[in-house]
Design a protein that fits this description.
This protein is of the alpha+beta class. Helix content is about 35%, strand content about 25%. The protein has 20 helices and 35 strands. The chain binds one RNA strand through strand 14, strand 15, helix 8, strand 27 and helix 18.
RNA sequence: GCUACUGUGGCUCAAUGGUAGAGCAGCUCACUUGUAAUGAGCAGGUUGUCAGUUCGAUUCUGACCAGUAGCUCCA
């Protein structure tokens, strides 16, 4: 048979040769690195015989496919080790994931840190046993009998959900067999450098209605050095954790008696937010937005119109007796601004000439997140969003949507997060219509229009079902924190539904009253979350334009204290955030403190500088910059701040 | 909300079934200092809260509060 390789070359092999045989024929080194193969576009085991002419690609650990096979086998080894040590444990599922793998178990007792060590040791043993992974298939009925015989109830459930005529594959390694589509590496001896990371809870099949299983997370690399480097990288990432750095640098704190998800922004944190907020509001003004200032709470009647009362009540803080249908004094803190800004639109009749109408508001919102959700500044119960709503005619929608995207990208670019985000087109879940308002046709229509616009913008995006807002699809701009957990930073949503609910209309050119399309959008993401991600991005060392303290003025002795005060005042007058440190300490000590506080610039003043009427400048980044005129420094800093240099 | 872990002075951490220590920070004194930590001294905690077990708990148990990882949720 003819085997065609990615470079176009063709070689002839005997029918029945495996990818591994072929790799071996080319070079033993290639065979050693080969973890799985892609035959005619399908990923499969390297040990699978090939009988006909085929295109063949070998996958090593450097390929996503190879990495997944390697770690997927590691997941099986994990399950095998757990079965050996804890025979009563029931197996659920165990896939490879982005940075490793996991396996879900139903165990009587929680796994402890010591258990993980024992399991890891057993996995090493299994690798040492070099067990061959054998694939075989069974018809669905036989597979089910097998699963029932073994008492693996989760496997039974998985098989039951497969079609009647399905042929089901299994992988056997030594005494252990698992239901699995594969592919896998040829033997357990291939998989080394394994590290079990943690054990956490996870619902069976991802539903909170089901039992919570125990999930063991692990990772594995092709070399020990890569594993160690990865672990070091994780440790390094943790040092940037905003929840730790933000507290250390006194940007924010939390207090038990105030409550969960209700952080205190300390002066430095509040300052950074103020700088961001001014920047955002000014930019929005430049882009034709009109500022509103609307109430932080409203009667429930408002939320009944918007749909929040029916679709989002659990997420709201309600005042009064929500169960008393007659009561007129039931209020709720606002979880979002849209209904309020819609009322601004409805203030008077609108003409098609008025559109687009763009409203913005730096809006504080309240959401009753469940207790396990709160996380530092990333998930909180009260936060402030650069919220905006645009009412436009259908023919303006694309332009307006693109303008929103442009604004979001401008913001990301400026604050330095543009390379860290991913775009997600969040759609509804047609199997879970309870969660949404409107009918299938409206949703399909809205989503198709939105997809069209997104394709036209040329951005790279992924589509996700079940992530839409209850009233419409959205473009979410996603970002990961230092732990790799993804959250939405910015969102742009298309809404064909709420305008009608709120009777927002405009008189069109043809004399007909029509409902505008509404775009809900944020331009920078909620300030708390943005601050958190900026702390992590810069490890607390903000660019000068964002730094809560930009300049620290450090006299070397008392003799220059007065001069230090003069310089500080001059900097303050020039609009900079400057502080002096007049304590009677060694200059090295003061510099260290300023460095630790991540202050971008230090002005050092000794007798020499006082005499010559200059300053000695030190940069956080580049160290001693030598002597210069104060005006020179002011000009330099002015430029740096105005260009928002990073 | 669920699973697991954690909670000791402002911060980082130690110790113990017989009422707790260290470093940094703070305060005082001395040093007037040249680009990442001067020295000495002082003060600071009813060990998250409330119950329970015990002769005795900070240590063991439970509930609650808060923090962390993950799941679920996330307008």
């Amino acid at each position: 048979m003819n085997i065609t390789f990615p470079d176009g070359s063709v070689r002839v092999y005997a029918s029945g040769a495996t990818a591994l045989d072929i790799a071996n024929d080319i070079s033993p080194r290639l065979a050693k690195a080969t973890l799985c193969a892609i035959v005619n576009g399908d990923v499969c085991d390297a040990g699978m015989p090939i009988y006909e002419d085929a295109e063949l690609r070998f996958c090593s650990f450097d390929d996503a496919e190879g990495r997944f096979a390697y770690r997927h086998t590691a997941a099986h080894m994990l399950a095998q080790a757990v079965k050996r040590l804890f025979p009563g444990v029931k197996l659920a599922i165990g896939p490879a994931i982005e940075n490793g793998f996991y396996y879900d178990f139903d165990a009587e007792q929680a796994f402890t840190a010591e258990d993980l060590k024992r399991i890891e040791k057993e996995m090493e043993k299994i690798a040492g046993e070099n067990l061959k992974l054998e694939r075989y298939t069974l018809p669905r009925a036989d597979a089910l009998v097998k699963a029932m015989a073994s008492g693996e109830k989760y496997k039974q459930e998985l098989i039951r959900d497969l079609p009647q005529d399905a042929v089901i594959s299994f992988y056997r390694q030594g005494e252990f067999t698992d239901l699995c589509a594969g592919p896998h590496v040829v033997s357990t001896g291939k998989v080394k450098n394994i590290k079990l990371m943690s054990v956490t809870g996870a619902y069976w099949r991802g539903s909170e209605k089901n039992k919570m299983l125990q999930r063991i997370y692990g990772t594995a690399f092709s070399t020990r050095a890569d594993l160690d480097a990865y672990l070091v990288q994780l440790e390094e990432a943790k040092k940037r954790d905003h929840n730790r750095l933000g507290r250390e640098l006194e940007l924010f704190t939390t207090v038990d008696v105030i409550g969960q998800g209700l952080p205190i922004l300390l002066p430095k944190g509040a300052r950074v937010l103020q700088i961001l907020q001014r920047f955002v509001e000014d930019e929005e003004q430049r882009r034709g937005y009109m500022l509103t200032k609307t109430p932080l709470f409203a009667k429930r009647d408002l939320y009944k119109i918007s749909g929040h009362w029916d679709h989002y009540r659990d997420g709201m803080f309600i005042m009064g007796d929500a169960n008393d249908e007659e009561a007129t004094d039931v209020f709720a803190l606002r979880p979002m601004t849209c209904p309020f800004q819609f009322m601004a639109y409805n203030n008077r009749p609108r003409s098609y000439r008025d559109l687009p109408l763009r409203y913005n508001e730096t809006s504080t919102l309240f959401r009753n997140e469940s207790s396990g959700e709160m996380h530092g500044l990333i998930r909180v119960r009260q936060f402030t969003l650069s919220e905006g709503h645009i009412a436009c005619r259908p023919d303006q929608m694309e332009t307006e949507f693109r303008a929103c995207l442009d604004l979001a990208n401008f913001m990301l670019e400026t604050i330095g997060l543009s390379e860290d985000v991913k775009y997600r087109f969040s759609k509804w879940d047609e199997n879970d219509t309870e969660k949404y308002i409107g009918n299938k046709e409206d949703w399909e229509n809205a989503q198709n229009q939105m997809r069209e616009i997104l394709l036209n913008t040329g951005i790279q995006f992924v589509e996700a079902d079940g992530e839409a807002a209850f009233y419409g699809p959205k473009l979410d701009i996603q970002i990961k924190n230092v732990h790799g957990k993804e959250d939405t930073l910015i969102t742009i949503q298309v809404d064909f539904q709420l305008a009608e609910r709120f009777q927002m209309q405009y008189m069109d050119a043809d004399g007909e009253k029509k409902y505008p399309v509404v775009i809900h959008r944020s331009s920078i993401g909620c300030y708390e979350r943005t601050l958190a991600l900026l702390i992590e991005k810069y490890a607390g060392a903000f660019p000068a334009w964002l730094a809560p303290v930009q300049v620290k003025v450090l006299p070397i002795t008392d003799r220059t204290a007065e001069r230090a005060t003069e310089v500080t005042d001059a900097l303050l007058r020039a609009g900079f955030r400057a502080e002096s440190d007049l304590r009677n300490e060694k200059i090295g000590f003061k510099i260290r403190e300023a460095q630790v506080q991540k202050v971008p610039y230090m002005v050092i003043l000794g007798d020499k500088e006082a005499e010559e009427g200059v300053i000695a400048l030190r940069s956080r980044k580049d160290g001693d910059l030598g002597a210069m005129d104060l005006d020179t420094f002011i000009a330099k800093l002015t430029e740096e701040v105005e260009t928002r240099a990073r």
